[in-house]
Amino acid sequence: MLQATGVTKSFGGLVAVDDVSFEVDDEEMVGLIGPNGAGKTTLFNTITGVHPPSDGSITLDGTELTGRKPFEIAQRGVVRTFQTARTFNESTVLENVEVGAVFGNGDDQDVAEERAHECLEFVGLDDQSDAEVSGLNLADRKLLELARGLATDPNFMLVDEIGSGLTPAELNTLTDTLERTCHERGISVFWIEHIMDAIMGSTDRIIVLNQGQKIADGTPEEVQNNDRVTEAYLGGGDE
Ligand SMILES: Nc1ncnc2c1ncn2[C@@H]1O[C@H](COP(=O)(O)OP(=O)(O)O)[C@@H](O)[C@H]1O
Ligand SMILES: [Mg+2]
């Protein structure tokens, strides 16, 4: 289980994440929403060690993550995908996923290849394993990023706005793949998304940030009926 207590991250005078506490349970799928600039990506960065918190504590199964380097946190099974897919476009689909297996899990070549194929099959891309990544469409690139993350054999996956720019059918496939990641593979999924229908329909719980602060934490229904949440969106959190 991931537990964050009083997490704060300031950039100069700006408090991007302000005293935020929450938990994500084992095998739980939790959404993270909030207006632009609310601090969602920054919160992810505090978890992965990219921007360590200025204050507060983040533990995974009781082990303190704060103060550890990003690669150490990754080795503990925390993996993330990016708002803009970061793939190696001159390589094949299979090679991209093998990278995850080798660097994340220390697999040797044969094991890495086998694991990569299994992960590609899981996301529905195995028939394209020899294709060059530059030829993939946006939706398949996002699935590829998921496969690469899965190849590291994580127990906690952070997903940052993976739904943008997809057709409804593509979004369905992606959502379904995230749900299976959580429920079939037993991986906790912490998912930032601004496409409300997608996140409301598949998460167990949703945490809402506004101007760095947590303003709600509950079931999708509870969050949708929360006045502070409605206000935050209507008020426009854009900075
Ligand atoms: N590396 C950084 N340096 C300075 N300010 C930053 C940095 N990253 C984010 N911020 C600021 O922190 C606030 C929260 O940003 P961010 O976490 O990206 O929001 P969100 O992902 O919710 O849209 C914004 O005001 C943003 O400008
Ligand atoms: Mg963001």
Briefly, what is this?
The protein has nine helices and ten strands. The protein has helices at residues 40-48, 70-75, 93-105, 109-123, 138-151, 168-183, 196-202, 220-224, 227-235; strands spanning 2-11, 14-24, 29-33, 55-60, 63-64, 78-81, 156-160, 188-192, 205-210, 213-218. The protein binds adenosine-5'-diphosphate and magnesium ion.
Detailed description of the structure:
- There is one protein chain.
- The chain contains nine helices and ten strands.
- Strand 9 and strand 10 form a beta hairpin.
- With 239 residues, the chain is an alpha/beta fold.
- Helix 3 packs parallel to helix 5 and helix 5 runs parallel beside helix 6.
- Helix content is 39%, strand content 25%.
- It has a domain of 141 residues: P-loop containing nucleotide triphosphate hydrolases (Rossmann fold).
- The mean pLDDT is 92.
- The protein is globular and about 50 Å long.
- It has a six-stranded mixed beta sheet, with helices on both faces. A four-stranded antiparallel beta sheet has the order 2-1-4-5, with helices on one face.
- Adenosine-5'-diphosphate (ADP) binds next to strand 2 and helix 1.
